[in-house]
Amino acid sequence: MSDSICISVSDHRGTSHYLINRFKKRYFFLGFIILLSMLSSAGYSIYSLYQQTILSDQQLNELNEQTEQLTASLYEENATNQALSQELSDKKAALALLTQRIDDVETILGLQSNDGEVLPLEQRIDSAAVSSAVRGTLFRLLPNGNPTPGIRMSSQYGVRIHPVTGRRKYHRGLDFAANIGTPIYAPADAVVEVVRPSKKKGSGNFLKLNHSMGFATTYSHMKKFNVKRGQFVRKGDLVGWTGNTGLSTGPHLHYEIRFLGRALNPRPFVEWTPENFDSLFEKEKTVQWAHLLEMFNNIVSMQVQLTHHVPESVAPIKTASNQEVAPDQRQL
Question: Which segments cross the bilayer (predicted)?
Fold first, then answer.
């Protein structure tokens, strides 16, 4: 047996023969196996790297999606935070305005401490409740607003030439140019003190309402009454209709406000509203408003205290109007 291996290679130039002995043959196969192993290992490595690359791309895409979601969520959170911050700012501004209003009313009502010390929250809340209740009570019990809503004033309070006598005379009220039959409403809670019919004399059909704390209102030249003497009326109740009775040159309502019998200019009372609460106290100087407000404050404070100690059941007060009279005690 030959110890050599003959390898023939043919091309266009001819055939070439190569002899490889058996010892070299072994090294050749060993090298071939090593090369094949290296190629296999390299191929496996390349495949593994390719798979890792695909996996990395997938993970990167997932991370990008998560990043986009987190970015959108962060944007929404920022928008929500901005909205909440704006709402908080608005609430703070409203609270500051409310606090200022409370301080103003507390100053008027004497609820501020003398040394300027900040009152406890509970006490300030009670003060705010009292202040609000005081305002409501004032607008309920003191004359305010136009008794004939929507009707213009035709003659002011003060000295003028009387339209009938032609003489210079002090006009102690306001005239409203109301047509005959215009409704007249009570400007505050009251009791009807005077109902005086008169077609031709002076004030004509005349009505007087007695309000709280010495205030009274009068209505002249009316057409018709809707109340009787001694009747209690609430603010806004219909008390009658305008007319042209008495010493009058045309249909109108002559409206007066009196305090302890003294005529006051009704215009500040007519224009007095919750929005310009201080205007009446600034324009009308003849009334001691500080003492009046203090009295109202004490009344309302007592009412607030009573609301915290309401008994479970209160027996109705017996009066002559709600007591049942026995048949033998009734007048025949």
Answer: 27-50
